[in-house]
């Protein structure tokens, strides 16, 4: 069995790709990893919120003035965000950037009066039939986690097309498996300290998993520690110490659903998980693992 492992700083974190195959030589596996990294880098260059030269930054600056032609990948991510925004009734909203910015959670790269943007939602984004995109009013999109998941899915496509035996792509709390996936996933215990990083186990129920939690909160707002996870409707940060991992068929889907599960009412997110054929695993503030196997 031939195997390679590569790592690159991308998407604001470290992206790691592991590939195993019984027939393909290590040189070919290494080439496949480089092509996969190239796809991830392409998504980053298109959709980075912090890069003033990115396509997303150009759209945020001019989208309310006139329709813009954008890359098909960027459009796909925005379209998926709109679909999930409608499905969650606004709990997932990529137009929350102004609120996130006001809490000091985004780079201060854009100058615009907050009152011009604070009422905007994903519904103010228009996807034109000719492929262009425009905004009904000034707003700023932040596709952060969604773009990360999309990048991992695009990287996985390369490995699926090459028919590799198995592969794993990991990036900042997200995992994408190709081929056979493991039976168990190691999760961080929220009750663990910096000196003692205890791990818990959960059953893997899909090829893509995203984990989201507030236990790494290190920002203060009004002298209180604040999570980076904000509710688009209340504009308040999540204060719970729980974490959730969502298993789905794609990372872009799992990424969005983690936020919905953490912020929405149980009846609502349970119905959405069933509709999306996804499952969830919670790790409580007491270090207990609680699964929700909606797709069973």
TrEMBL record:
<dbReference type="Pfam" id="PF02424">
    <property type="entry name" value="ApbE"/>
</dbReference>
<keyword id="KW-0285">Flavoprotein</keyword>
<keyword id="KW-0479">Metal-binding</keyword>
<keyword id="KW-0460">Magnesium</keyword>
<protein>
    <recommendedName>
        <fullName>FAD:protein FMN transferase</fullName>
        <ecNumber>2.7.1.180</ecNumber>
    </recommendedName>
</protein>
<keyword id="KW-0808">Transferase</keyword>
<dbReference type="GO" id="GO:0046872">
    <property type="term" value="F:metal ion binding"/>
</dbReference>
<dbReference type="InterPro" id="IPR003374">
    <property type="entry name" value="ApbE-like_sf"/>
</dbReference>
<keyword id="KW-0274">FAD</keyword>
<dbReference type="InterPro" id="IPR024932">
    <property type="entry name" value="ApbE"/>
</dbReference>
<dbReference type="GO" id="GO:0016740">
    <property type="term" value="F:transferase activity"/>
</dbReference>
């Amino acid at each position: 069995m031939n195997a390679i492992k590569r790592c690159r700083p991308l998407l604001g974190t470290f992206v790691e790709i592991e590939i195993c195959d019984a027939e393909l030589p290590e040189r070919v596996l290494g080439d496949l990893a480089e092509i996969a990294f190239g796809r991830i880098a392409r998504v980053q260059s298109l959709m980075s919120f912090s890069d003033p030269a990115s396509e997303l930054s150009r759209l945020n600056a001019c989208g309310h003035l006139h329709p813009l032609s954008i890359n098909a990948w960027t459009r796909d991510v925005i379209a998926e965000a709109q679909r999930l925004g409608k499905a969650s009734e606004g709990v997932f909203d990529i137009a929350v950037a102004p609120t996130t910015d006001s809490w000091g959670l985004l780079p201060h790269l854009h100058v615009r009066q907050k009152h011009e943007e604070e009422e905007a939602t994903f519904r103010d984004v228009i996807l034109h039939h000719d492929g262009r995109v425009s905004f009904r009013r000034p707003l700023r999109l932040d596709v952060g986690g969604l773009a990360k998941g999309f990048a991992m899915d695009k990287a996985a496509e390369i490995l699926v097309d090459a028919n590799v035996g198995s592969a794993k792509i990991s990036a900042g709390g997200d995992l994408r498996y190709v081929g056979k996936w493991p039976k168990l996933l190691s999760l961080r215990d929220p009750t663990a300290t910096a000196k003692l990083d205890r791990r818990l186990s959960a059953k893997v129920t899909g090829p893509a998993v995203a984990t989201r939690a507030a236990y790494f909160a290190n920002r203060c707002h009004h002298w209180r520690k604040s999570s980076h996870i904000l509710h688009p409707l209340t504009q308040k940060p999540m204060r719970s110490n729980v974490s959730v991992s969502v298993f789905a068929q794609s990372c872009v889907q799992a990424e969005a659903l983690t936020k919905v599960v953490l912020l929405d009412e149980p009846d609502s997110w349970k119905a959405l998980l069933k509709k999306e054929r996804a499952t969830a695993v919670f790790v409580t503030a007491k270090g207990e693992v609680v699964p929700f196997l909606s797709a069973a």
